[in-house]
Design brief:
This protein is mainly β. The protein contains four helices and 31 strands.
Length: 400
Amino acid sequence: MEMITSKPIPGILCVLIWMSIITRSQGAVIDAKQNGAKGDGVTDDSQAITSAWQSACSSPTPSKLLIPAGQYAVGPMTFLGPCKAPITVQFDGNLKAPTDLNKLKSQDGWIVFQQVDAMTLSGGVFDGQGKVAWSQNNCAQTGKCSNLPINIRFNKVTNSMVQGISSVDSKLFHMNILQCQNLTLSHITINAPGDSLNTDGIHIGRSSGITISDSDIKTGDDCVSMGDGSQQVTIERVTCGPGHGISVGSLGKYHDEQPVMGVFVRDCTFTNTMNGVRVKTWPASPNGVCQDLHFENLKMDNVGTPILIDQQYCPYGQCQAQAPSKVKISEVSFKGIHGTSSTKVAIKIACSKGIPCQNVELNDINLQYHGPDGNGVSQCVNVLPTMNGQIFPPACTETP
């Protein structure tokens, strides 16, 4: 079934229109150094940069905030809108986060863009200096992550574009997209060691019209993760690894989660990742909806379980594993996925016994396993996938 379309979604068109307007009518340029920022890597430049933002944001005509070349030591900063006109933020310098966690205590974000419309953000390195925090990070087990900030948060950002920025060594997630609409991220570079805990590259939640393209993500958790309410999300031409792959979920941990619908992952490459593409939901979950997910033309290089649906996701044993998930997964396609698996189970589709997956398609799959224990296998439970084209390893040859 041909469900993936190459036509642009309306959100991308909105962003392109806004960018055209900004380009034609660029107004005042506010230079952060002319507003007192030193860029010497020692002075706290937070107030100077925030003040420059406020000047640019209050301009009645399109404006640009320029952060020139330099090393900027900054504490938590919030770029708060709404602005009076479209705004461009150009980082030519590097921002460095405090290493002292007490300076970031109870901060959920180091750099926050909030309630901004028609923004172009480009350039710059956002260095979270997270190494000191990783050794203290047990929040996945305790559920308490409030003292670890996300490098960059986008809250209620609309009709905007983020391009050519780098996030390095975040203390927690690199980027978090929450309640955003029509936001495009392109040519993003994310870099942290594979053993840096809970450093998801880009997390999306309760947002629609999100596009991530032409980006390189190396980190210690999911390269991209999509939480509840992620709708009309396109991820294309992304390289992932090290990391845990590209994930939908986990879903079903909380009540009143919003549906996940319209996810397209295509033309991506995964190298030495824990998983490839996966959908994960908690057992014993409230009712939920996850549908219209499409994974196409993906290259896997030494990837553990390149194709995975796991409706018994239960890290650290923090769940009632015997009760079935009530998240309904449907209309899912895996097409044109080739490469090598680092584990014997190259395909695992483990659906809920309470609400089995519906309309799952496997089409043109070739995943080789070269381990000492025989050929790779495909496992299925509570699902009857449709199969088209070559499928290797043969689908559903084992039940876990």
